[in-house]
Specification:
Heterotetramer composed of 2 epsilon subunits (GlmE) and 2 sigma subunits (GlmS). GlmE exists as a homodimer and GlmS as a monomer. By secondary structure, this protein is α/β, with parallel strands linked by helices. The protein has a domain of about 40 residues. The protein contains six helices and five strands; from the N terminus they run βαβαβααβαβα. The protein has a five-stranded parallel beta sheet with strand order 2-1-3-4-5, sandwiched between helices. The relative contact order is 0.20. The structure holds cobalamin.
Amino acid sequence: MVLNTMSQTVVLGVIGSDAHVVGITILEQAFSAAGFDVVNLGVQTSQEEFAEAAVAHDANAVLVSSLYGHAEQDCQGFHDVLESRGVDAVSYIGGNLAVGQDDWDRTRETFEALGFDRVFDSETDPEEAIAALRTDLDIRPTESERPRISS
Ligand code: B12
């Protein structure tokens, strides 16, 4: 089924005790500008708060941010919590996911093993995540969103 961006809801937040707010503010603006309905849960969001919001808003995607180096601990059991609430959404995580982040392949594998569909580092351009989500949700641009080619 091909979906329209306008009907897609993204739940976004910073997990755990992390208080870094700038990244998700930029992501909120970028996803909103791309036509998604964005529910920004803000900083210091618990696993349960993500799950509750995903259920309440019937989210198509859950986007988790973490900057302070404790993402792996904060995300233990996260997908079990989502599943127990019946959340069936694409899940991404991004930010500074490990202390130092010196072995990115290992970091990515760690978070994929925790259940995330995609893992993004702190150099990620929001447009990259938007393009990935459009692909994962099988969203095609509407007539008005398509670039116009002038003759
Ligand atoms: C500003 C800042 C702070 C401010 C935060 C103010 C605020 N309310 O936001 C203050 C001073 C409070 C702070 C505190 C701390 N900080 Co600080 N902080 C920074 C700093 C300098 C900039 C972060 C920032 O705003 N970047 C700008 C935004 C636009 O970029 P971003 O956050 O990376 O987000 C982008 C990408 O990461 C990506 N992204 C992020 N999340 C997601 C999610 C998805 C799904 C996707 C697709 C993409 C994505 O897209 C975003 C937009 O482009 C960074 C260093 C740095 N240069 O990154 C350290 C840094 C993040 N902090 C760090 C640390 C250690 C701390 C503290 C633990 C320090 C301490 N001992 O107290 C505390 C933690 C407090 C807490 N409870 O969170 C470390 C983390 C180390 C690690 N992970 O390995 C860093 C990397 C500094 C360092 N080099 O050591 N910090």
